[in-house]
Each structure stands twice: as C-alpha cells, then as structure tokens.
Amino acid sequence: MLQKIKHIGKEKNLSSLMANVSVAFLGLLSFMLLTRQLPKELFGEWVLFITLATFVDLLRFGLTRTSSVRLLSGADGNQKKTILGSSFRINLILLIALALLCWLLYGLVILAGLQINNGYILFLIYYPFLALSNLSWNNAMSLFQAEQNFKRMMWVRLSNVGLFCLFLVLNHWWLAWGLEAIIWVNIAVNAFSGIWCSLKNWDGLTYLVNAKRKIEKELVNFGKYSMGTLISSSLLKSSDTFIIGMSPILGSAGIAMYAIPLKLTDLLGIPLHSFTMTAYPRMAKKAVEDDVLGAKKIFYSYVGIVTLLFFPVALVGFVFAEQMVLFLGGKEYLDALPLLTLVFRVFTVYIMLLPIDRFTGVLLDSINKPKLNLYKVLVMTFSNIILNVLAVFVFESLVAVAVGTVLFTIMGMIMGFYYLKKEIQVESRQIFSESLVFLKNLKTHLG
C-alpha cells in the first residue's frame, strides 16, 4: 500500500495537477482578499493591469516556451545550456523592446492629454518593472516542463504567489496600502522567485555565453507560430476585459464584476492546464518517432477522459453558481448577484467544450503543424473580438460577452477536427473506444 501511495505521488499528471491546484488556491485567496480591500473601481483597474501584464507575458515567452520544451525534451547537458542561454537572450531583447514601447506610449498619452482607463496607465508605467522581475523564473519554466519536474515548478510558483498572498493578508488586517503599493509588492515577490532561479542556474542567465544564433533562429522559427497561438488564445479570454475597459458605460466596475465569474471559470479549468502540460511532450515524442497512431491514441484518451471529468465539475458549477459567485466576490457584489450568476452559468457550457478545443490544438503542435493551430486560434480570436464589440457597445451586456465565448469555442472545435482529419485522419468516434482502453490501462497512459 505504501509503495502504491509513493507511486501515485510521483505520477506526472498528478504532480502537474497538484502544482496548478496549489498555485490556483493561493491565487483564489489573493483574488478574494483584493475584492474585499479595494473598492470596485480600483479592483477593476487592478484586473485590467494584471490581465494586460499576463497577455504581454504570453507574447514574450510564447516565442520561446513551446519550442524550448520541444528541444530540451531530448537534449543532453551541453545542449540544454545552449538552448536555455539562447532562449534567455531572446527574452531579454524582447524585454528591452517592450519596456521602451510602454514608456513611449505613456509619454504620448500624457502629451496628447488622452483620457483612458487608469488600468491602462498603470500598465504602461509599471509593466517594464514587472517584466524584469519575472524574466528568470518564467524562462526556467521551459526547463521544468521539459524535465516534467512539476514539483520544482510548483515551489517556484508558490514562492511568489504565496508571498504575495501573505502580504495581502497583512494588508487586509493591518497595513491598508493602496493599489500602487500592491503593484510594487507584486513586482518584488516576482523578483524573489527570479533571483532564486538565477542562483540555481535554472533560467539560462549564466548560460548566455553558450547562446548560439542557429538555436535562436530555430527557437524563433518554430516559436513564431506557437507565440501567435498563445497570444490569440490569451486574447480569447482577455479581449473581454480589454473591451469592457473601453466602454464608458461598463468601465472599471464592469471589469470588476465580470472578473468574478471569469475567475471561477479559470479555477474549474485548472485540471485541463495540467493535463495539456503532460500530454504535449508525450504526443510530441510519438510524432517525432513517426508513431502517428500512438499520438492519436493519446489524443483520443485525453479528450475523452478530461471531458468526462469536466462534466460533473460543470454541473456543480451550474447548480451552485449563486453561492460560488457570492463566496468569491463578497457582499459588495450582492446587488449584481443575479447578473453574475447568469454569466457564470453560461460559462459552465464553455467549460464542457474547452477540453476538445484545447487538445486539438495540442495535437496540431505535436505533429509539427503549429501554423494550422495558429490559423484556428486566429479565426476564434477575431470572431471573439467582433462578438465582444457587439456585446459591449451595442447590447451593453456582460451576458452577451459570455455567450460569445461559447460560440467561438464551438467554432474552434470544428476547425480543430477539420485540420486533424485532413492531416492525420483523426476520427471523433474513436474518442469513446480509446477512453475505455485508457481507463483499463491507467498505468500505461499515466505512468
């Protein structure tokens, strides 16, 4: 029995899930503390700032993350140094370019006297500092994922999320610092994690001398598609927040309200992120070995099982939507409870569709067709932006924004299956049969 428990503890899917759950729990706690210590308008500005920061981080690290994981998965010691050093140099150049762009735009906004949401102003001022502080630990994530070292990944993420959460507890009860001070503390805790990764040689800083133009070119050539896919994927969620922030009617208060059901949706989707992190290296390995049938079997199994797991999660979310929204947002959002409950119930439909859409993209990347995955996500992104503009400026409805999310996800599923059927003859009816095999041979699939 003890040996079985040890084996379960080492199982990679479970390790990845535990890492994401631990970070998400502290993220949830931080979210709840912020809703209770910042007025609705200021909380909306924080959400806009952090959403923009997350989006641009995807732009920076999307260029190298997927391609680095792909190369690091089969690399020896010296090759790893070269890959890490090359990816670090690329990300350092991107950091400098983005910092200059942010401060230039801030100067233009001030000179022109433009009146924009303060969340955008906060981003232009403070993002370069945040980008510098999270550079090292974000670059180290490629190494952790390639090595399937999810325990180390968890501790590095917990080091900044945990410290930030601890600060928010102190701030709630004693300090009562404002929004800008909270942003500076967030920068400081990210810097702590970054310094730790640098001292341990996990990030590639000390391997800058090993960087090679050839590897950088290879990383960028593959990464330009995965970066486009990641950016577009992020826009699928974050464009809601950006467009609501531009509305003179909904504004920061609208962002604050919409953030609550959106956060609940992200929490329910945590297992999916964990499974995709473990599925990608496995499918990619099969594809590299020209075992297309093996890659398809893994795809069928993951899609079937994860969709099955998400069904009760979505059902619980739908039934207890009101209680979950009130628990997360607190009494300040009591007046908007019926609206936010309806928005979240629409999102539970999106949760059910998400695994199929996400895994079609993962398989396209695995078989070295990132361009097709990019096309799929771009169509979804543009559709979402159009639907968001209509929902916010024509219907002035947060529910309409959520309905748009369901519609573009259905579109993504259809496109994903179309491309996979065309490239490697994927058949949707095989999902059920392979899922049964998956359940009978858990050790083989999850070991």
UniProtKB/TrEMBL annotation:
* Pfam families linked: Polysacc_synt
Offer a single GO CC term for the protein.
plasma membrane
State where the protein is found. Cell membrane
Topology class, membrane = Multi-pass membrane protein
Origin, by domain of life?
Bacteria
> Could you tell me which InterPro entries the record lists for this protein?
Poly_Biosynth_Transport, Polysacc_synth
From the UniProt record, list the coiled-coil ranges.
none
The name of this protein is: O-antigen/teichoic acid export membrane protein
This protein's species is: Flagellimonas meridianipacifica
Q: Identify the taxonomic lineage of the organism of origin.
A: Bacteria, Pseudomonadati, Bacteroidota, Flavobacteriia, Flavobacteriales
